[in-house]
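## Example record

The block below lists the input lines for one assembly entry, exactly as stored, with component labels intact.
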Amino acid sequence: MALILPALVSTLLAASALAADEKPAKGLTMQQVLEASKPSDWRSLDAANTLYMDLPAGRVIIELAPTFAPLHAANIRTLVRQKYFDGLAILRVQDNFVTQWGDPETEDAVRAKPFGQAKRKIAAEFTRSSRDLPFTRLADGDIHAREVGFSNGFPAARDTTAGHAWLAHCYGMVGAGRDNDPESGSGAELYVVIGHAPRQLDRNIATVGRVVKGMELLAALPRGTGPLGFYEKAEQRTPITSVRLAADVPASQRTELEILRTDTPTFNALVESRRNRRDDWYLAPAGHIDLCNVPIPVRASGAAPRG
Amino acid sequence: MALILPALVSTLLAASALAADEKPAKGLTMQQVLEASKPSDWRSLDAANTLYMDLPAGRVIIELAPTFAPLHAANIRTLVRQKYFDGLAILRVQDNFVTQWGDPETEDAVRAKPFGQAKRKIAAEFTRSSRDLPFTRLADGDIHAREVGFSNGFPAARDTTAGHAWLAHCYGMVGAGRDNDPESGSGAELYVVIGHAPRQLDRNIATVGRVVKGMELLAALPRGTGPLGFYEKAEQRTPITSVRLAADVPASQRTELEILRTDTPTFNALVESRRNRRDDWYLAPAGHIDLCNVPIPVRASGAAPRG
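Predicted structure tokens for the full assembly:
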């Protein structure tokens, strides 16, 4: 009686791999697309823009998006290199919305952790120019933007008439919390989407990256019972052991991952496999896919069935 | 530095309520819409179609949708009245997808809990006729269906050309897990959506209701580490203390709730308040809203500021 659906992060199977030109009439499943992928369909994470957030329960890995929020990414790197996040905590978990972390003492000028070389205010990187930006467009449209698709591995939207592009608030996307002042989101307080995509946040806040591994450590936390899901007692907060740039971690302690590129025919085939599911369970293939329902597969480096 | 957004279930404030005809030029916030609501904008839950699923951590309340899945709702009521779910367990939690519960011994003919008067197979109630169905249409469209909106308080889609309507798999919607056989979803194994709406399930499975209270008890559970998010060890499962129909529970043990009706001008005003957020935090109001981002407010009965 099990409801059948593939997990988002797939384990690749060596058996029954299809050659790239072998395409059954009824189309490929996602598993078949991944099995037929080439090494060049995958990319490694850039260690200089990858964060390891270590929690007592395990490691969360975040890929920063300097193409969209270069100033925020730089400020976050500065904070991380100063060990700013070490010993801070997860402050807020609001069901079907966000998990948020930062300094519990941020309102207290004396007890708040110093920013050191990092900036407290940054220009509002809520959109960027759509010019010269790689963009793999999805065919099925979107109710919020003229075009949606993927850019450098992130779900994104663009309006080439206005000349703007921006990251979309899909599940797992990370943003920089801010006050009413648009420049107040320094990156010292971050949130991740843990529910249905709150696309109303798009173009209203700096989206700085995406959780590529460990989402379950942030999404399964107890919801806070205070206003906006903030925890009411200090002991309810999950402590952050440390946040490090992958580039600053010894090779033996790194988690080496590869992500499926979003600018390849293989990715297009993956999207098609999700638009129209091929397994026997589905009676009425959707024929369409929402931007935030497209999985971006991740695998351990070296997981390819054959070199 | 707090990211500001209203909680989905609002506490009504008696102060600063607006009269229904008092409409500021810039529009109303959701809070203002709710404060201005009339008692007739709210409905009580039908006790004969309301389930109380009591877990060790608290009560989950599910409103069944007999308008869309009458046979499934009837079978679930039969199972509940036989105390079928008492002592069963949550079997599966797959991140960004579903939490699922039922009989851990379902595959074992000897140890499986008997169905008693309930049916093991039910006609596939995946869509119904769109004729004579109340429907409050949303203006902003949808990539999956010709029309989306709300019917009897549930997010729904319809295609009047084909003559069909169906419930949409939004966050909190409850469905009847099935095998490849379309008639195998008896309602004895149920799931709830805990992530971005998996709309590809629409019209492929019987959607039988919605969690109206207690989602955090199902969404914050540890994710299962087996295939499809099933728990690998029996002790990882959350036990189900009992499932009861509200109608079968003494009045003193009921949780009396009211839900905002979805067929009123007040609901339309609420949708508009969410399409274009009015608080000072938003710089770029979305101007559109996705079906699954429309909140359906719930309050304790008698919570209205004035009779």
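Residues 30-44+258-300 of chain B form one domain. Chain B has a mean pLDDT of 91.
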